[in-house]
Design a protein that fits this description.
The chain is an alpha+beta fold. It contains 2 helices and 7 strands, in the order αβββαββββ. The protein has one domain: 2-Layer Sandwich (HIT family, subunit A). The protein binds adenosine monophosphate (AMP) and zinc ion.
Length: 122
Amino acid sequence: MDNCLFCKIAAKQIPATVVYEDDELLAFKDIRPHAPVHILVIPKIHVATLSDCDASHTELLGKMLALAPRLAKEQGCAVTWQDGTPGGGYKTMINSGPDGGQEVYHLHLHMFGGPHPWRVER
Ligand code: AMP
Ligand code: ZN
């Protein structure tokens, strides 16, 4: 797709800090992170928005979402509290359409994680 920022990133025409790549997906660091870890997962094919998806995209969407726990683990979005209990975690989000806050019209899954500054270690 001409003139699509994320297609250009997928084609390596625009640089990005890539953290995962396979035949279908690319994951890279968001340029304006909203959390200590902020990764975007995109399909390499151009799909403008989630609203363009239907049942034929089920496998692709599943792969995008299933990548999040792997990225979270690799990016260190987990802690072990002093009492040994597991903590940490992350959020996933897909903004769709203008009222959904979508700015880049190439489907992408946000993965936010990292330590919350307001959280007090117990
Ligand atoms: P959205 O509002 O869901 O469309 O999110 C678009 C995201 O793309 C924003 O969080 C931007 O910071 C991010 N972004 C825009 N340009 C780039 C870029 N060149 N490399 C990495 N992330 C980008
Ligand atoms: Zn695109």
